[in-house]
Amino acid sequence: MGTPRARRTAADVEKVVLLVDEHDDDEDDNSFKGHSSKRTYHHLLLLLPLLALGYGYINSWSFPFPSPEPLPPFVQDGIKRCAEISRPPPNLRDYDASRKRSDRYVKGTGAVWLKNGTVWTGEHHGEEVLYGADVWLEGGVVRKVGKAGDADFHELCREAGDADLAVDEVNLNGAWVTPGIVDVHSHLAVDAAPGLEGSDSTNSLKAPILPWLRSLDGFNTHDAAFNLSIAGGITTMLVLPGSAGNIGGQAFTFKPRWTAENTPQSMQVEPPFVINDEDGWVRTKAWRHIKHACGENPLRVYGNTRLDSAYDFRRAYTEGKKLKDQQERWCAAPKSQSEPFPESLEWEVLADVIRGNVKVNIHCYETVDINDLVRISNEFQFPIAAFHHAHEAYLVPDLIKQAWGPTPGVAIFANNARYKREAYRGTPYAPKILADAGIRVSMKSDHPVLDSRYLVFEAAQAHAFGLNFSEALSSVTTHSARTAGLGHRLGYVRPGYDADIVVWDSFPLALGATPKQTYIDGIPQIIKPHVVDKPAAAQEISREGNYDKEAAEAVESRGDPDLRPKKRSGRVVFDGVAELFVPLEGVHTAGVPSRVVVDNGEITCVGTECVVDQAEFTAIDLKGGSIAPGLISTGSKLGLIEIAQEASTSDGKAVDALNAPDLLDGLLVRAADGARFGGKDELFAYEAGVTTGVTSPISNNFISGYSYSFSTAAEHALEPGAIGSTAAALHLNLNIAKHSISTKLTLLRSLLAGNDLKASDELHTAFAKAAAGDLRLVVATSNADVIAALIRVKREVAPPLKLTVIGGHESWLLADDLAKEEIGVIITPSRSYPFNWNTRRILPGPPLSHHTLPAYLASRGVTVGLGIAEECDARLTRFEAAWAYAAAPDVFSKQKALDLASGNLAELLGLNSEARAADVGFVAYEGDVFSFESRVRAVRAPGRGDLDLFV
């Protein structure tokens, strides 16, 4: 009887030892409602010494009985698995200030002494800023943060010298320093750039429930976006599978730093499984991650309605719970088992979710979807890390707090909305509303939906529209790190934390802020960075915008506020005008305008000598602001589409003019005939200073048809000024896959030459006018080889042709030829990214290249405009022009930068001919027109005699 007793005690002790971990639970991230594991865990800690003593005492007895039989291998293996599944949730207190070396340390990495920086540490709820501070990086971690001249830094320097360790001393001259940017929602390396069919591993399309898949298995280390993201300060990203199905698979955290091994596993941060020489593939103490999705994506891909999706989630979690219960029953009496430990490749991760060991990231937009998952989390008792996209989260913060366990975070876009019905109620004020409600907000990229290189721009927009600077910076650092389960080592400039640091050329939330250098694990990542000197004003902490009224309206209207202007006046006097960018005829101007008088929609007087009867005029103080031309938006289908994924809200696709076997059916579609007015994107754009849209027909055809210009303020097509031109330019598309490029260009040659093709008179007439230079031809392409072929066609067939390239991301390779032939370029979108093979040779701009694409083309004499890709981005047009100015002040004055989105576009889109004079109106801005802090206060829309007031 003694031997069984001794064996049983030893097993019990072994189980306790394996159960007990040396770390404590984090009260914020790892405590769950109704969960007593923490208390039990502490009791086990107290019992451990007694159990160990007892086991040692009993084991010392001498027994006359034979030695016990060894446990069968399957039981031994099962006991190890019991230890794994019984471990408490991963802990966020693994590291502290005494940590001197990272697990990701690269042997031979020197120390870095960053001197005299302005350091945003992330401490004190993001409010701490250290001026004139030094930061010491060594061993892959932050070793010291403090004031310049601190004796500790010199001691560290001496120690490094004694250890024969190189020290790179960098004088920052006051430059801003932050923790590395953490992207909590990325598809980088699974949706690799340039996009090719052979490298797309974003989604599996086998079934809506696929928890057993892993993004790690499709992580492409050759993604061209790695260096671009690093150039935006990205140091860590949570790479998720796509959202085609309800459970797309498991996600993993990575750093984009190149490693000597150059494998996906070597780029992981705290991998949940590692290869161990003794045991093979083993579970670590790190968090796991999984991707869920609900709403319209599973509906579109699999036909799963919300009813189907909710059932599929519950069915899947029933399997996970069943496996969890089977495993725990086995572990309750491992030595009495006759079968191996219960395993399931398909459902084991869901069992681990229910145990609280997996961060659950849920793609959910609408209230109904969020509510479904909150209920399911309570039914199966698992915590949710964050709701992603979550366009309606700002309407239901109390619902989010009802999720089981700690309150989930929310990971959202700043602007990207209305592309489908469940995104229709998105608002730029959501980050502020959620933060005020006590919800942890992270801004995210959904890379490559948004280029993660510009993730800080998302935080900057959130700040501009109401989120305070500490929360805005935290939304891409500390909050995102915590949401990803890495808040114990990332998200702060703090001793013991990973040496992931970004040095900026300006305050990180300033418009156009760009890294001077990005350090990952203490290693500088940008070789010979190109830096733009920014003015002193760009270094200052900006105030958040005051949009309390607009935010309240968004909530009160349940996400569908009336965006139409509420006030209007034909007679306005603007005081405090610092800059006037509107060309005037017959109006005397000299020096600082100070005062501008508008009567019946026209500027009638400029200057301090202007005298008006205040009783007859509406007075607006622009507080050092400016009056500029209304901006033009082009490149998207603004004015033809309200919700891109809802066919009934758009004009529909134009007929194919290359319709085999007849080749040409002669139809030349006019976008104006499908015009749609009063949409949210038009109205958001209008109140942001965009007065005119120019849009070509919705088409996947080579010959798209005629574009039209329209007022973003108009409510219907017959309103005065609603439509400016019904046939502004003729648009062709060389990006479509149907028919070869050579076939399309052969046809273009023939049409421009007036060859006798089987085509309608209208089509021949249009191309004859284009060949003579009487009709602007706008051709969509970005590939340099295709652009070169277009240049040859113009030279050989139609030298007078007025040609515009839209897209144009490789056009810099041909800048001199474009200038010589007077071919303009509308860069769309305005900041380049290698989306596909035809855009892979981009000019990235600082810090990777001296020039941006707009600046380089303009410096070579090319007329340049800026376009957008999606309708929702129209409201950001001014910011894009400001970005071009901030990145190249030696090339663009403010006037020239504004021309990129106004006068230049009017010319490049055919709006400046005598028959179609462009009327884009004008806009009055309070504050610097190129500052996030400026606001539109009044707009005179095309064709109107009065102004809409936003005061």
UniProtKB/TrEMBL annotation:
Residue numbers spanned by region Disordered: 547-566
Residue ranges of coiled coil: none
Organism domain of life: Eukaryota
Keyword Transmembrane helix found: yes
Protein name: Amidohydrolase-related domain-containing protein
Record-level GO BP terms: purine nucleobase catabolic process
Keywords linked to the UniProt accession: Membrane, Transmembrane, Transmembrane helix
